[in-house]
Amino acid sequence: MSIEIRKDTPIDFELVKSNIDFFGHSFIRKGNIRIMRKIVDRVENDSGIKFIRMEMGVPGIKPSQIGIEAEILALKSDVAGIYPPVEGLPALKKEMSKFIKLFMNIDIDAEFCIPTCGSIHGCFVSLLTLGRRDPQKDTVLFLEPGFPNHNALNRILNFQQVAFDVYNFRGEKLRSKLIDFFDKGNISAVVFSNPNNPSWICFTEEELKIIAETAAMYDVIVIEDLAYFAMDFRKDYSHPGELPFQPSVANYCDNYILLISGSKAFSYAGQRIGMLVISEKLFNTRFEKLESFFNMDQFGRALIFGSILNTTGGVTQSVQYGFCEILKAVNESKYYFIEDVKEYGEKAKIMKKMFIENGFNIVYDMDGEELIADGFYFTVYYPGFEGVELTERLLYYGISTIPLIATGSERTEGIRICVSLVARNRFNELEKRLMLFNQHYCQSVKC
Questions:
Q1: Is 10 exposed, middle or buried (0-12, 13-18, 19+ CB in 10 A)?
Q2: In order of start, what are the domains of the chain with their CATH numbers?
Q3: Whether this model's pTM surpasses 0.90
Q4: FRET pair for 217, CA 20 to 30 Å: which of 105, 136, 322, 433?
């Protein structure tokens, strides 16, 4: 490490070091969130000191009682003894279709709206199915930085992948960069998140149109991850059926898959449910090569009765009932889910200020011509440190994060901060730990 490490830290130095050594530095470099969690859990248990947990991108808001009560009622009706319909309960599919229309202004039939076991499962079955449509198209393009699990899913499937950091290719620059990759003829799908995990950039309408147009030119399927649906709080997407609507590539192309998580915007993470929305054209397209793998060549049927059936058998019956009632309440303006999740943006604004006042800087600071929004994530660096080194050093101060390099970012100096699990009553504690870190290292980096 280039900067001498301080040993007079709030958490016992040897305790933290021994746990990092036990699990291995490589897990931190790879951004393995589960291993980071194990390290922190062990240190907390042995030291009795609670960490400020910012490594996990998990919700920090209580789930709606609407869903819970609907699940209880469903369970009392003995649905636990019946296999769920793999394609989804008709009532749930209907509410999904309504939601897409009301909050995105996109007309999509209920047939093409399928519940999955979270959006990560939706991504898995999408990649699994797309990867079998054409042996010449064996590669997935990831617009980075992004959710590391998406890349991991592709590796599990043993498909090829390429990527680039989209931050340096905003606006019209994005078109030529995409064409450079698509022109090789081997790209099956392009995957991106919007808002972006971890940078929190949001693609403009111009950029979404560019992605759609270039994908259409080269027969590339677009997978848009909308896990943080309507959480760009610079605009108010809370009114169903009214402008503005959640931006989406689906407005500009007809070969798309949308992934909408039940975990973040709806705070329903523990029940593992999400929406997978397939364009009508893609759903009904027949690919000859699918037949040999799925015994059916229609894309939508292969995805449902090939990929979903053989991975999970469908989403748990009671969960579908619960999520159905949540969406119904949202669609009927009885539950304003965006009002609940605005808390993330408010916390991010306060926490960013703490970091900046204590020597840190924002990594992804601009979103096109605008300042980056306050939301679920933000990214920071401390001068003189690489992101992996900074991630490790902060552990000695009771602060857990992940390095940006693990997300495909080219900004190797940065780390990702997730605000969700940091309670407001711990803000003073966070500020004190950041102040001490800055006192310990400010002189070393000549701040």
A1: middle
A2: 13-60+338-441 (3.90.1150.100), 65-331 (3.40.640.10)
A3: yes
A4: 105
